[in-house]
Amino acid sequence: MKKKIIILAAFVITFFTACTSTHMITFSNAELSDKEKDMIENNSNYSTASIVGGSAKLVKEERDKAIQEKIEARRNKLKAIDGLSISSYKDKNGKEQFKATAQSEILFKFDSYELNEEAQKMLSDLCNIITEIPNTKIKIIGHTDNIGEKQYNIILSKNRAAAVGNYLRTAGIETNNITEDGKGYSEPIADNTSEAGRAKNRRVEIFITNDEY
To answer: Between 3.30.1330.60, 3.40.50.880, 3.40.50.720, 3.40.50.970, what CATH number should domain 81-209 receive?
Structure first.
């Protein structure tokens, strides 16, 4: 009888030891670092949940850091392009995006929508930056001053936006990632009563967005 009790007790101890062994962990350790695996294998005081949670937090922090570095790199490269004025804004999801503005005088001759050589160089540099991050979306909006008929200015602004978009397509940006529109003189950013104000209003705005940030 005593022998049976000893055997039973030994079985119970063995059973509970096996159940509490670190080798019974059911989640995959594939995503854990060597240090975290070592903590588990050596019966560390850290719980499995805290180790996994800490690893997930570390992954998120590294991802956020990498995203911020991409944003900073894109901003610096855009600002280095002569003739472009760069600003940033938050989209509806709170992600930072960019707007590049070029005055029409830099891009086109008077009353024309044919890109000059300086404009082509500028847009080539812009294309190189844009294509560094896949699936970047480009929205191009043309604007004019208020000299001339309304409909004429709308058509001119649309043609100028299309000229910029077509050049970016030939430079390597996917057609489906580019949209264009023209607003004529309906969205001025300066007073049209002065030449300086009208010059500011004659512009092309290029919105550069990326959901992968």
So the answer is: 3.30.1330.60
